[in-house]
Amino acid sequence: MAFPSYRRICNFVAVAGLAAALTSPSVAVARSAPESFAGLAENLIPAVVNVATSETVQSPNMNEMPQFPPGSPFEDMFRDFFDQQGERGPARRVSSLGSGFIIDASGIVVTNSHVVGKADEITVNLSDGTQLPAKILGRDQKTDLAVLKIEAKKPLPFVKFGNSSELRVGDWVLAIGNPFGLGGSVSAGIISAQKRNINSGPYDSFLQTDAAINRGNSGGPLFNMNGEVIGVNTAIISPSGGSIGIGFAIPSDIVRNVVSQLQEFGETRRGWLGVRIQSVTDELAESFGLLKARGALIAEVTTGGPAASAGIKAGDVILRFNGQDVPEMSDLPRIVAETQVGKEVDVLVWRDGKEKNFRVKLGRLEEFEKTAAGIDAGGEDSGGMPGTEASDLGLMLAPLSSVLREQFEVNSDVNGVAIVAVDDEGPAREKGVRPGDVIVEVAQQEVRSPEEVISKVAEAKKAGKKSVLLLLYRGGDLRFVAIKLDEPRSSKKKGK
Fold this sequence. Notes:
It is a single chain. About 20% of the residues lie in helices and about 35% in strands. By secondary structure, the chain is of the alpha+beta class. The chain has four domains: about 5-20 and about 35-45 and about 160-265, Thrombin, subunit H (Beta Barrel); about 50-65 and about 75-85 and about 95-150, Thrombin, subunit H; about 270-370, Pdz3 Domain, CATH 2.30.42; about 390-495, PDZ domain (Pdz3 Domain). The strands form five sheets. Strands 22, 23, 24, 25, 26, 27 and 28 form a seven-stranded antiparallel sheet that branches. A hairpin with a 3-residue loop joins strand 3 and strand 4 (about 110).
């Protein structure tokens, strides 16, 4: 679900506090707020830095002039301005401010990737007023992290990473950073939630905090009560641009691994399994015979990839990877990415109503991405093309002819049955099925004709299934969809 408004921010987080663990997992122990964060803040502020960046940009040309309604008084004003600037206006410098923190006495600084962006000049301002030029050792846009290097004449104060996995909702945290250019600002709050997905990248698992975080705080750390970095402040929800008590930080358990790779290689080296996955809904779980919705459903296996080589196939549900449970689909990409490239791991899947284990040697994600070709989604309305009605699904089907392949942009290696029309009141429409989709499998069995689809659906109904599982092809991608089984739509329309 998309949040109403995301704004990248720059803030350093420092947490003061008491380290206290529950003596029993079943007993909740209330802790009073610290009398003061002053001691902790005093110790941490020297390791917090302001990151100032600047880059050269060109003024727009005439082709980039804003468009106004004919006769608008603004049209002549803007045209005169662009005429004075010529075809391309003079270059100008654009500056911005963010936050960061030092993790090594030699001058290693962590911040957000979006803080340094495309900057051609980066200056790190220390808490004592010292200004030092910085160079980028590496950036990772997927997690929005960057590592910088500064050269100082003496060892610098630094902070260490803690374990974000040990945090509990309600724990105190402290934020120190550079909001609105006001360096050394300290704010306190608690962990409001964990594992937040804000749709900013493939590895979203943010910590949510109510510590005040504003523009200029991006790249700053979030500290626990031991003074350890347990997150990097990255984004906020705000209609106005100021803090409303909903901020997000990248957990240190993710940060630590990415920063280590950027330091050593200047780039990330993530594990790659070679699958496309989707969430396991309650309906899909019922179709697979799972007691509850869990794991990551494999919709497609990359030919020649690690999973395919190990024997894993579409329709398998990954329940455990390298000894770690996969409660939800969104957990798998992060777990795989954090696993060492080339490592052999155990992958536990659910197939044909039982668990099955595979041994997989991981590839490298970045190498695959360099060679992978993106395919745009296709599929248009059939324009009244005749077909065979599958009334239980609310679909009109047709054999996948050469004409339909061309019309729906279906690859030659894809076999199945074309969907040429979708009933607006049918169960398939509710699941987002549309004309141009191709049914590759029904109940995990390949189909090549409309009659086969109808037959497989009838078998599912006879077996007492509440839904039937379809594997659909669309624009180069495969995905599973569970369609509820009901009385035929044609019968309903006739009032039977």
